[in-house]
Specification:
By secondary structure, the chain is of the alpha+beta class. About 30% of the residues lie in helices and about 35% in strands. It has one domain: Translation Initiation Factor IF3, CATH 3.30.110.40. The radius of gyration is 11 Å and the shape is globular. Pfam families: TusA (PF01206). InterPro entries: TusA-like, TusA-like_sf.
């Protein structure tokens, strides 16, 4: 998978992972992929709902060593 932009939101609490994700998604083009890493356990529900509400595609999410990883394709 080709990653166009990366957001490191590790150690940040809600709502900062969403704030950083929103800022980053505005900096890429439609169809490009944003990768987000966070340690905020609430981010799974938050980012899933945020992507859906914005029409973006949550391609995949994964957990690795307490780090939640998300890949979102911009609408």
């Amino acid at each position: 998978m080709n990653i166009d932009k990366f957001v490191d939101a590790k150690g940040l609490a809600c709502p900062m992972p969403i704030v950083k994700t929103k800022k980053a998604i505005n900096e890429i083009q439609s169809g490009q992929v944003l990768e987000i890493h966070t340690t905020d356990k609430g981010a799974k529900n938050d980012l899933t709902a945020w992507a859906k509400s914005g029409g973006h595609e949550l391609i995949k999410h994964d957990i690795e060593s307490d780090i939640l990883k998300f890949w979102i394709k911009k609408a």
